[in-house]
Amino acid sequence: MRGTKNPDLAALAALEPDLVVANKEENRELDVRRLRERGVAVWVTEIETVPQALASMRRLLVEALDLAEPAWLADAARAWAGPVPPPRTRAVVPVWRDPWMVVGRPTFTADLLARLGVEVVGGDPAGGRYPPAEVAALDDPSVADVVLLPDEPYEFTAGDGPEAFARVPTRLVSGRLLTWYGPALVESAQSLERPGSQGA
């Protein structure tokens, strides 16, 4: 089926799906339109916050697919309920290198981290939701307390990423827990550290 930016539309249509789920950030409007022109129903999500993710998943599963609400959805809603706390930590969250790009706003990842007391920083706000950035500007203790290096979409590892930062501490984190909405939200709430915990 290829990837999100170049799906095999003929192969998808040949499966005769009842519904194709797409995401505004990941999938091209052109591909959605072409699928619909083939008579394929497409559900497009636009997720920028944790509450949006939960509401969207509930609409998709319960209203569109007429399924019983899954236990994980109720668990996630309880886990992430409550107001957004004041930020206690400033974090740079790169999503790519060569060129370096970081998480900006409004994004699901920024909102999820905000709910853990972590403010995403770095990059030019005029650069969009994932602005480009210079490492020298990110590696500055007056800008950030920590650099969170996820393993997706770019796979940062112990040997690829931390070496670029000499002044701000780095921490390798699960990209799935930072960027996936769905059942991963339960694990995110259980695994990611809350404000006041050691580290970010």
The fourth-level CATH homologous superfamily of the domain at 89-181 is Nitrogenase molybdenum iron protein domain
- Report, as a whole number of angstroms, the end-to-end distance: 38 Å
Largest sheet: 4 strands, parallel
Backbone shape: globular
Strand order of the largest sheet: 6-3-7-8
Number of strands: 8
| C-alpha Rg (nearest Å) | 18 Å
CATH hierarchy: architecture of the domain at 89-181: 3-Layer(aba) Sandwich
Number of helices: 8
What does this structure look like?
The chain has 200 residues and is an alpha/beta fold. Among the domains are: 1-46, no CATH class; 89-181, Rossmann fold (3-Layer(aba) Sandwich). It is 32% helix and 14% strand. It has helices spanning 9-14, 29-37, 50-64, 71-79, 108-114, 135-138, 175-179, 184-191; strands at residues 20-23, 42-45, 89-92, 94-96, 101-102, 118-120, 146-150, 170-173. The strands form three sheets. A four-stranded parallel β-sheet has the order 6-3-7-8. A two-stranded parallel ribbon has the order 1-2. A hairpin with a 4-residue loop joins β4 and β5 (101-102). α4 packs parallel to α8. The chain is globular, with a radius of gyration of 18 Å.
